[in-house]
Design a protein that fits this description.
The complex is a heterodimer of chains A (493) and B (301). By secondary structure, chain A is mainly alpha-helical. Chain A contains 31 helices and no strands. Chain A is elongated, with a radius of gyration of 28 Å. Chain B contains 10 helices and 8 strands. A two-stranded antiparallel sheet of chain B has the order 1-2. In chain B, strand 7 and strand 8 form a beta hairpin. The two termini of chain B are 48 Å apart. Classes of the chains: A mainly alpha (493), B mainly alpha (301). At the A-B interface, helix 1, helix 16, helix 19, helix 22 and helix 25 of A face strand 2, helix 2, strand 3 and helix 3 of B. Chain B: It comes from Ilyodon furcidens (goldbreast splitfin). Chain B: This is C2H2-type domain-containing protein.
Chain lengths: 493, 301
């Protein structure tokens, strides 16, 4: 299970100052960004022993120890467990890992111990495999292949720690290598994960681990063709949905994993009918409402953003497939629009990227639904949204789009928006450097003006003419045309 | 950061067309309102907005930050404290006038800039005056041929101070009045005469040729307002607005250069004129068409 508040040192870590830690984090972040741009974003997880969780300052044994440990294991009778324990610690070291797998029959030995009659040895053996799976060397994945059928078999077992280790080991190796992934699929990893979650819903540590493994599987190359159809055909989607609500005692971690799996599913596919039928939109949106309320109150566990983010994405993409007639039944509650609005503000300063994603969901929510646009006005959210218009990096363009969605529905909505001060807001956004903001502002202005002559008059009274006249000199032809059209056809006539 | 096109695109649901009215290629429309848009464009209506459902693929750029967050968590590097998060950025404002590429962080700055440099602009010679009152006087005294005739018989030179209202027979008398009564400096910048061309001429000749050409191209006849683009001409314009130089030199040379302006324009165009488009005569820049057609008196035919 993962603890979110502790920032832990990796294996072989030395005492870091806060500054060094920050630096390391920033470097890591940069590396992750680049990896994502290269479509190579994959992470592994290392499950530590309970006794290790505090401090990893112990000196890891060198390569020589691995060799001697291996020989010892081959020949000893009764001390295997102790040797295995030491071996697992030794295998924390990447070069030791390489040394080990190059030894003849090393994997054969481990598998033997993994499947042997000594339960404690099984545990240590799987721990060794886990260390290998976490290796930065991609050759490890193939080396672990002999163990995979057993790891999968053990997923139906009842021993928590053991099952966790099996799962994380599988999760670590599957994105490394196409051959490994194919083998795991053939060996039935998907049904194994499905029954694992099903049988262990009470055991949230295992659920979390299974969620992680499924997530890793969904990140593999060609997951869309090879993995996702099988996942959607299994019982996994409904199980993922059933785990979404976080357990207050255990924490967010299992829900986080399952939510990210759902995001991988919804964002990789176009056809969401199956997921919609299983109530994915309903579940995710009601969870967002309750989480959103908690976030705004400041009443959440640390790391709630890690759960809110994939939920937002699921809702956003599911909305894009949900016919508008079905929207009210799927959503159940129009309060989502209010929850989302407050979330944008809550994230604005802490996680602006999430504020942007929330605004995107608001767009999808309001695009074709008159009911939700009406709710937006009823809950008096329009002035709140207008407060967001100064913020760049995609936030204001998306928010303006939401307001445009509302204006587009009905004349009455335009009039209401004008009463609420949208014209003044537009007078500012029309002067922004961002051309998309200017274009969109003109579009909204157009809709407002054609809906009522009073609005045109109000606009002129507020000094809007000079803005439009200035815009007639804008660089972009499209912008100039709109301004001219507005002036000539609708204001000055 | 505007949402950029993404490499991985979805197939558009329910139709093969790929036209995206809002130029956001990274999104795919899940519903279409093409009929309406086409109708609008046919009618000459340039407005094309229609609400769109935006589906984002997993690899979309919008998801980058959240994905990084996710993986920082997987690798035990996540911190919930926002200490390292950058503050949300605020949109800048920019002067719309093509060629005037100034950017502002507040609306007030924008307004001040616009009002100072672009609002009270003479349509004929493109000089920027600081107020409507001075613009009126400028138009009358510099571009109204009737003015000269009337001034021979009656007091036409209006005091520059708003509210004073006194008129004088000559500009010198007005200037004396300004100095004596209103305590203006003798070299008040907005009180230059059309006839004062001597010093300006020689001074101007010492400037670089390109600057000269830019200035020449500034003045256009026929009531056509053209906007020029170049940093130099921008600076020049600002200087001009401070020191209203004799327009007579331009007025006199307009006919000379209007022919040559074409050629000089094309040569400078390559250098500096990036945007040059004509505004219809019904709209005169800087004066607001609702206020009528100021500055068109005395326009050359």
């Amino acid at each position: 299970m993962w603890r979110l508040n502790k920032v832990r040192h990796k294996a072989g870590g030395h005492a870091n100052t806060l500054e060094e830690l920050r630096l390391r984090r920033r470097e890591k972040e940069r590396a992750l960004r680049q990896a994502r741009r290269d479509r190579q974003l994959v992470s592994k997880r290392l499950l530590l022993n309970e006794d290790e969780e505090q401090d990893l300052m112990e000196i890891t044994p060198g390569e020589q120890d691995v060799v001697s440990l291996f020989h010892a294991l081959q020949h000893s009778g009764t001390d295997k467990e102790a040797y295995l324990r030491t071996l697992s610690k030794a295998l924390r070291n990447p070069s030791a890992q390489l040394t080990f797998i190059k030894l003849e029959n090393s994997m054969h030995l481990l598998v033997g111990l993994l499947t042997g009659s000594d339960a404690r040895c099984r545990l240590q053996a799987v721990r060794c495999l886990h260390e290998l799976s976490h290796s930065p060397h991609t050759s490890m994945a193939s080396a672990c292949l002999p163990a995979t059928p057993y790891l999968l078999t053990y997923l139906s077992g009842q021993s928590t720690k053991f099952t966790e280790l099996c799962l994380y080991t599988l999760g670590n190796i599957c994105p490394d290598n196409e051959v490994v992934k194919e083998r795991l699929l053939a060996q039935g990893i998907i049904p194994a994960l499905a029954s694992c979650i099903q049988n262990q819903t009470h055991n949230l540590a295992v659920v979390e681990a299974a969620g992680f493994t499924l997530f890793q599987l969904l990140q593999t190359k060609d997951a869309v063709q090879k993995v996702i159809p099988m996942v959607l055909a299994s019982s996994l989607p409904s199980q993922l949905l059933s785990v979404l609500t976080p357990d207050p005692e255990f924490g967010l971690a299992p829900a986080i994993e399952c939510a990210w799996c759902l995001h991988s599913l919804t964002s990789s596919t176009v056809d969401h009918r199956e997921l919609l039928a299983q109530g994915a939109l309903t579940q995710c949106s009601s969870l967002l409402v309750s989480l959103g309320g908690a976030v705004v109150e400041g009443n959440t566990d640390q790391g709630v953003e890690l759960l809110v983010c994939p939920l937002l994405r699921c809702v956003g993409n599911l909305l894009s497939s949900c016919p508008v007639e079905a929207l009210s039944s799927q959503l159940g509650d129009v309060h989502l629009v209010a929850a989302l609005c407050e979330l944008v503000f809550a994230f604005l300063h802490s996680f602006p990227a999430l504020a942007r994603e929330t605004a995107w969901v608001l767009n999808n929510l309001t695009a074709h639904s008159t009911e939700l646009c009406s709710a937006l006005l009823t809950f008096n959210l329009a002035p709140r949204l207008m407060e967001l218009l100064p913020f760049s990096q995609g936030i204001n363009t998306m928010i303006l789009r939401v307001l445009a969605n509302v204006a587009h529905k009905k004349k009455e909505f335009c009039i209401r928006l004008a009463e609420l001060g949208l014209l003044s807001a537009l007078a500012a956004t029309l002067k922004m450097a961002n051309q998309d903001m200017v274009t969109l502002s003109l579009e909204v202005l157009f809709m407002m003006i054609v809906s009522s002559p009073q609005i045109a008059e109000q606009f002129v009274r507020q000094g809007g003419l000079s803005v439009l006249e200035a815009i007639q000199y804008n660089n972009e032809g499209e912008v100039r045309r709109r301004a001219t059209h507005l002036l000539e056809q609708h204001i000055l006539t | 950061m505007m949402l950029q096109p993404d490499l991985v695109q979805f197939m558009t649901v329910g139709g093969g067309q790929a036209h995206n009215s809002n130029r956001e290629e990274g999104f795919s429309e899940a519903t279409e309102q093409q009929e309406e848009m086409r109708r609008q464009t046919e009618e000459g209506n340039p407005f094309t907005f229609s609400p769109q459902l935006l589906r984002l693929h997993r690899d979309h750029e919008l998801f980058e930050d959240g994905d990084v967050l996710r993986h920082m968590y997987l690798q035990d590097l996540f911190i919930s404290e926002a200490e390292e998060q950058p503050a949300p950025s605020v949109s800048e404002f920019a002067c719309h006038i093509s060629g005037c590429s100034v950017v502002f962080s507040t609306l007030d700055e924008y307004e001040h800039h616009y009002n100072s440099l672009h609002r009270h602009v003479c349509c004929s010679c493109r000089r920027s005056l600081p107020s409507a009152h001075l613009l009126d006087i400028h138009l009358q005294e510099w571009h109204d041929s009737l003015f000269i005739i009337l001034a021979q018989k009656q007091d036409m030179y209006l005091c520059l101070v708003e509210g004073c209202g006194q008129k004088f027979r000559t500009s010198q008398e007005r200037k004396d009045h300004l100095i004596r009564v209103h305590k203006y400096p003798p070299d008040f910048r907005f009180d230059k005469n059309r006839k004062e061309k001597g010093t300006r001429d020689t001074r101007r000749e010492h400037r670089t040729d390109t600057a000269m050409e830019a200035a020449d191209d500034v003045s256009r006849s026929e009531g056509v307002c053209e906007v020029m683009c170049s940093v130099q001409s921008n600076q020049l314009e600002q200087e001009e607005s401070m020191e209203a130089h004799a327009s007579s030199e331009e007025a006199a040379r307009i006919e000379d250069i209007s022919a040559s302006a074409q050629t000089s324009e094309t040569s400078t165009e390559a250098l500096k004129l990036k945007y040059s488009y004509r505004v219809p005569k019904t709209v005169c820049f800087g004066q607001g068409s609702v206020r009528g057609f100021r500055g068109q008196r005395g326009r050359r035919k």
